[in-house]
Amino acid sequence: MSKSFTTITHDVSQALGSLRHDIPETMQGFNAMAKAALAPGVLSVLDKELIALAIGIASRCDACVGFHVKALIRLGVSRAQLMETLAVCTYMGGGPSLMYAAEAVRAYEEFSAARPAKPAA
């Protein structure tokens, strides 16, 4: 059975809720670090999310792939931007990264299909 990135991100979000309750200081620190790291600067937020996705792929983290692809779609990533990032991931990580690049494509297609279409201008 194929994994569902919608299910993965939902399930991990619920578990993160437990962590926020049980170790609030740690989670507040992590969230502050994420907010600071992803703030726009010399690199755009989209560029930073592409980097985060690449690290998730290199780390073989399903939840990371799901959360960062979901964020990239929200930010308006193009398929071409995603594919170039996945090409670099494959170059740097070889076969295992290629397998997770394919998973990122699946996540992109899953989350894109679930996103409401923009009204025509």
Automatic annotation (TrEMBL):
Residues 24-106 form the Carboxymuconolactone decarboxylase-like domain. The keyword Oxidoreductase applies. It comes from the Bacteria. Signal peptide: none annotated. The keyword Oxidoreductase applies. One of its GO terms (molecular function) is peroxiredoxin activity. Keywords: Oxidoreductase, Peroxidase. This is Alkylhydroperoxidase like protein, AhpD family. It comes from Candidatus Accumulibacter aalborgensis.
